[in-house]
Write a structure and sequence with these properties.
The protein is of the alpha+beta class. The protein is built from five helices and ten strands. Strands 1, 2, 3, 4, 5, 6, 9 and 10 form an eight-stranded antiparallel sheet that branches.
């Protein structure tokens, strides 16, 4: 993988990148890590830094890895990896080696973070902020009802804001 200028991310359609293509959120190190598929999040500029924000339910296995580590990666894949992303979004690392089952090849970055050789782009990030969602914080109660009460899948998300420290792409 080769590093590119962080401004190149701005050429991507972030709505498609996260909402349609999905991403793998990966935390941990070469000895112990976990990954999960996510399609909620965003990117922007905050505190004079390029940032991403992600939402992880506390009962997800990856949540513990995010809590225990200062860094994480957000990795984006070509369409031919869609099945691998489906595996990583439907299986728990508690129960199976989903990276192996998905056919992904882990790669350790200089920072110690993990990504995968199949990723077309990886954002290597450092945690800056976290907040726990609470029911009282929902201004639009319909969002709470639709995404949490009518579709129970666990607790309310933890929101993480992470600084994008480097962007890596598949090298030629």
């Amino acid at each position: 993988m080769k590093k590119i200028d962080i401004n190149a991310v701005g050429k991507e359609n972030v709505f498609d990148l996260i909402g349609k293509e999905w991403m793998l959120v990966t935390a941990g190190n070469e000895k112990s890590f976990n990954t999960m598929t996510a399609s909620w999040g965003g990117m922007g500029w905050l505190w004079n830094k390029p940032v991403a924000f992600i939402f992880i339910r506390p009962e997800r296995y990856t949540h513990g890895f995010i809590e225990e580590n200062d860094r994480l990666t957000l990795s984006f894949f070509p369409e031919d990896c869609r099945k691998a992303l489906q595996v990583c979004g439907s299986k728990s690392g508690r129960d199976t080696d989903k990276v192996k089952e998905a056919g992904l090849e882990p790669v350790a970055l200089e920072s110690g973070s993990m990504t995968f050789s199949q990723a077309r782009m990886t954002l290597d990030c450092r945690k800056l902020f976290k907040a726990e969602m609470t029911e009282a914080d929902f201004i639009d109660r319909e969002v709470l009802k639709r995404w949490y009460n009518e579709k129970p899948g666990g607790g309310l998300h933890t929101v993480y804001v992470v600084e994008i420290e480097s962007v890596l792409v598949k090298g030629n």
